[in-house]
Structure formats: C-alpha cells, structure tokens
C-alpha cells in the first residue's frame, strides 16, 4: 500500500496573514534572517490498492484545494519504507536537546548552527510531481509586508 | 404564501435567526437538512451563517458536497433564488455559484460589530427593496471574511455591476475593493458576509435594515408583501 501526498499552498499573490504572524514571532527565537513564512496543508491519502495519482489530482482540484486561491502538488510516497508512527517525530524534528529546561524561561535562543528541522529520512524520499500550472515552491516571491497596515477599521 | 428554505448543516449557527427573519418578512420558513437532497418545493433558499462541518479543510468546502447543496446548485443554475450569509457565502463560493473566495481576515482577528454597508446593486432577487446607493447598518461577525479574487475577476465584477454590497466607514476584514457581497450574472444568487437576519427587529438588532433582503425576495417571487413588513424603517 502506498501513500499519495497532496501539498496545498496559497497562491503566491494571496496574502497569508497566519504565515506573517509566524514570521513575526521568529525574532523571539533569535531568528532574524527569515524574509517570509507561508503556511500550507499536507494531505496524506492511503489508497486500498495501487496509488492513483490521477484520482488524487481530481480530489485535490475538487475538494482538497480551492483553485481560486490555492495551488497543489501531488506525489506518491513510499509509505512501506517509512516508519509509520515514529517518522512523524523525526520529520517534525524539534531540537531534542535541553530536556531539563525549566518550564518558564526567557525565550530560548537557538544556536545559529542548530538546524531548526531535522533532515527528512532518506528512505522517505518522494518523487514530486507538480500539478498543472503550479509554480515550484522556490519561485514564490516573499509576501509584501503588510504589518500595521489596513485591517482593523474600528 | 411563498416558502423559503433554510439549510441546517452540522455546525450551522444562524439558521434559527434566518428562519425567524423569513417569518417576520411574511413568508413561510421551511427548515431544510443538509443530508436531504429534497428541497421540499421551496421558492427560495437561504444558506445560513455558522461553521458548517467545523470549517474543516476550508470554510464551506465540505458543505458544498452535501446532498442538499448538490440539489441547490442545480436549482440555482435553473433560477432558484439563493442567498448565502457569511458561512453560506463561503459555501456559494466553494460551490462556484459565486466567483472569488473568502480567506482569513487580514488582521487575523475575529471581527464582530455593527457595520455600515452601501447597497450597490438593487436589480437582484434579494436587494430590490433598497434604493441604489442606500446605506444600511447590519452586524458583521467573521474570522474568514476577506474576499479575494484575481484581478481579472475583480475587474469583471466591477464593470458588470456584480458587487452588491460594499463596506463603508471601515473594512472589517481586508476584503479587496471593500467587497461585502456579490451576485451571480443572473442575479438570483447573492452572497454576503454581514448578517441581515440579525437586523430585523429593534429589540435585537442595530436596525431593521436587514428585513429588506427577505421582503425583496418575496417581491421577486411575486408575493404581496404584508403591510406590516413594508415599512421597515
């Protein structure tokens, strides 16, 4: 059984205020060299038989993504070779050091040399297949800064 | 007497107020259920506010595929008047009955207040009770009410008179062009983020300006509007 992964991202021209809020919080972790953060969704589909990319793409277009505001990519991931449960921890990979840090401390600053996210297991490497017309993720320009503008009209 | 249906989805919030507004306007309210494809012969449909299916995935994305909505999409394409309020507007956009989409408020805050609107178009099934350019005061309350569309769609909406309501004196959510509501080309389908059903009585609303939405559809359906509802101010 294999897994189809659908990644859904807001189109580059659509404002992502939640991503901006995350970007705004990064300096509290001592990270000051991030130009922009954008947040998307990852959907994992387990077919009972062979993974059906065409069907997954139809699902993504009809339901999982709203093509008015979102782009998506569809790919097959070899689930059989990835550890089913533990893999999540490895991927999300929050720095596991300092387990005895007191609960209430000043904002923890990351060592500049510490990777924020652990490398993905090589076994789980996937073949990306972009949807029709979808721009590659690295082509997304940074969002225009909108902090302090517009919005609250009260 | 005209019969106007209100669809209740799991997570609908304002279905009762919508049914009540319909009754106050002089029509017979009919409760419809999301899992029932039968529209029970209603003359018009209101999709109420709330959080259908928990707003999971995207607001309105799952409601769009409910049995009731599949029937409503067909009926709307055949001319049935359909009004979407707040979550109902989101559902209409997801169902592609209306263009554009509603996204997270630009400032990320849930915004709940009385809101001035300008009625830009009165030649729809739902807005003929107003004067062109009339300013009305009705509540707005949403977290994902920021109307967006691509530049070509916005241009089309503006040049073809399909922006029905526009925010006045402050845009509560960052909507492009201050758009609060839009219509389809035929004018039988209208969606708006603010809540006319919460402005139908002096006791509970900031005005009775919302009643005109519901009396307008009765006029559209050819029903005589009761005298009690005609003088809504």
TrEMBL record, chain A:
Lineage of source species: Bacteria, Bacillati, Actinomycetota, Actinomycetes, Micromonosporales
Gene that this sequence comes from: purS
Pathways per UniProt: Purine metabolism; IMP biosynthesis via de novo pathway; 5-amino-1-(5-phospho-D-ribosyl)imidazole from N(2)-formyl-N(1)-(5-phospho-D-ribosyl)glycinamide: step 1/2
Name the UniProt record assigns to this protein: Phosphoribosylformylglycinamidine synthase subunit PurS
Region Disordered, annotated ranges: 127-154
HAMAP family in the record: PurS (MF_01926)
InterPro entries, sorted: PurS, PurS-like_sf
UniProt-listed Pfam families: PurS (PF02700)
Self-association state and partner proteins as the record states: Part of the FGAM synthase complex composed of 1 PurL, 1 PurQ and 2 PurS subunits.
Top-level taxonomic group: Bacteria
Compositionally biased residues, Low complexity: 127-147
Alphabetic keyword roster: ATP-binding, Cytoplasm, Ligase, Nucleotide-binding, Purine biosynthesis
Any one annotated GO CC term: cytoplasm
Gene Ontology molecular function: any one: ATP binding
Subcellular location: Cytoplasm
EC class: ligase
Family, as annotated: Belongs to the PurS family.
Main location (coarse class): cytoplasm
Reaction it catalyzes: N(2)-formyl-N(1)-(5-phospho-beta-D-ribosyl)glycinamide + L-glutamine + ATP + H2O = 2-formamido-N(1)-(5-O-phospho-beta-D-ribosyl)acetamidine + L-glutamate + ADP + phosphate + H(+)
A GO BP annotation: 'de novo' IMP biosynthetic process
EC number(s) recorded for this UniProt protein: 6.3.5.3
Cited function: Part of the phosphoribosylformylglycinamidine synthase complex involved in the purines biosynthetic pathway. Catalyzes the ATP-dependent conversion of formylglycinamide ribonucleotide (FGAR) and glutamine to yield formylglycinamidine ribonucleotide (FGAM) and glutamate. The FGAM synthase complex is composed of three subunits. PurQ produces an ammonia molecule by converting glutamine to glutamate. PurL transfers the ammonia molecule to FGAR to form FGAM in an ATP-dependent manner.
From TrEMBL, chain B:
Positions annotated as active site in the UniProt record: 86, 195, 197
Main function: Part of the phosphoribosylformylglycinamidine synthase complex involved in the purines biosynthetic pathway. Catalyzes the ATP-dependent conversion of formylglycinamide ribonucleotide (FGAR) and glutamine to yield formylglycinamidine ribonucleotide (FGAM) and glutamate. The FGAM synthase complex is composed of three subunits. PurQ produces an ammonia molecule by converting glutamine to glutamate. PurL transfers the ammonia molecule to FGAR to form FGAM in an ATP-dependent manner.
Pfam hit, one: GATase_5
Regions annotated as coiled coil: none
Name of the protein: Phosphoribosylformylglycinamidine synthase subunit PurQ
Transmembrane segments: none
GO molecular function, one term: glutaminase activity
PROSITE patterns according to UniProt: GATASE_TYPE_1
NCBIfam families: FGAM_synth_I (TIGR01737), PRK03619.1 (NF002957)
Keywords per UniProt: ATP-binding, Cytoplasm, Glutamine amidotransferase, Hydrolase, Ligase, Nucleotide-binding, Purine biosynthesis
Gene3D superfamilies: 3.40.50.880
Organism name: Actinocatenispora comari
Gene: purL_2
Chief location of this protein within or outside the cell: cytoplasm
Enzyme Commission number(s) of this protein: 6.3.5.3, 3.5.1.2
């Amino acid at each position: 059984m294999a897994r189809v992964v659908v990644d859904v991202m807001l189109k580059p021209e659509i404002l992502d205020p939640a991503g901006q809020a995350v970007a705004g919080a990064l300096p509290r972790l001592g990270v000051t060299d991030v130009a922009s953060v954008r947040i998307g969704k990852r959907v994992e589909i387990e077919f009972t038989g062979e993974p059906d990319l065409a069907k997954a793409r139809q699902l993504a277009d009809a339901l999982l993504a709203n093509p008015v505001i979102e782009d998506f990519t569809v790919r097959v991931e070899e689930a059989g070779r990835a550890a089913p449960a533990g893999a999540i921890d490895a991927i999300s990979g929050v720095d596991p050091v300092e387990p005895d840090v007191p609960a209430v401390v000043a904002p923890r600053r990351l060592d500049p040399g510490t990777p924020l996210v652990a490398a993905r297991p090589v076994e789980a490497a996937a073949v990306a297949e972009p949807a029709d017309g979808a721009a590659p993720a690295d082509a997304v320009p940074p969002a225009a800064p909108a902090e302090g503008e517009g919005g609250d009209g009260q | 007497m005209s019969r106007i249906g209100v669809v209740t989805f799991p997570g609908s919030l304002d279905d009762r107020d919508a049914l009540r507004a319909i009754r106050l306007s002089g029509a017979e309210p009919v409760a419809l259920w999301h899992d029932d494809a039968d529209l029970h012969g209603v003359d018009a449909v209101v999709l109420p506010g709330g959080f259908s299916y928990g707003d999971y995935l995207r607001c309105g994305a799952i409601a769009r595929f409910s049995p009731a909505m599949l029937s409503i999409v067909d009926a709307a394409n055949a001319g049935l008047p359909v009004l979407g309020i707040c979550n109902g507007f989101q559902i209409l956009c997801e169902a592609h009955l209306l263009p554009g989409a509603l996204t997270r408020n630009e400032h990320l805050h849930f915004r709940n207040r009385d809101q001035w609107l300008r009625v830009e178009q009165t030649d729809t099934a739902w807005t003929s009770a107003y004067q062109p350019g009339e300013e009305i005061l009705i509540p707005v309350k949403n977290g994902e009410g920021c109307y967006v569309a691509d530049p070509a769609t916005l241009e089309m909406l503006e040049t073809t008179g399909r922006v029905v309501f526009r925010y006045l004196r402050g845009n509560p959510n960052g909507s492009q062009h201050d758009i609060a509501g839009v219509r389809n080309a035929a004018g039988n389908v209208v969606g708006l983020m603010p809540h006319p059903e919460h402005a139908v009585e002096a006791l509970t609303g900031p005005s009775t300006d919302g009643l005109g939405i519901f009396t307008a559809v009765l006029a559209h359906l050819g029903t005589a509007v009761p005298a009690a509802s005609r003088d809504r101010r």
